[in-house]
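Checklist before submission:
- one chain only
- standard amino acids only
- sequence pasted in full

Submission:
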Amino acid sequence: MIVIREDAGVCFFNVSVQPRASRNEIAGVREGACRIRLTAAPVDGRANKALVEMLASALGAPKSNIAIVRGETSRRKVVSVAGLKAARILELLHAQGTRA
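Returned file contents:
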């Protein structure tokens, strides 16, 4: 299960990213983190940009409400999402393929 922390209307959760994958997808859960595969390479911030775009699409939120809080150069990241409750995020990620 994805561990989501809520604080003042913002939710924080861990993401494990696999860049240069064969396709973009939410690929399950590993150690409490949402596993995401991205076709983008981790060069010049392309994978981070693709991650934000993918989460915005999956959660139906504006890209401006999603930020990488920690781990910009790492595969393990902490992401913040403003404007959505933790239960709704879990529901949407589950609908996209994650067994949250």
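Reviewer check: The longest helix spans residues 46-59.
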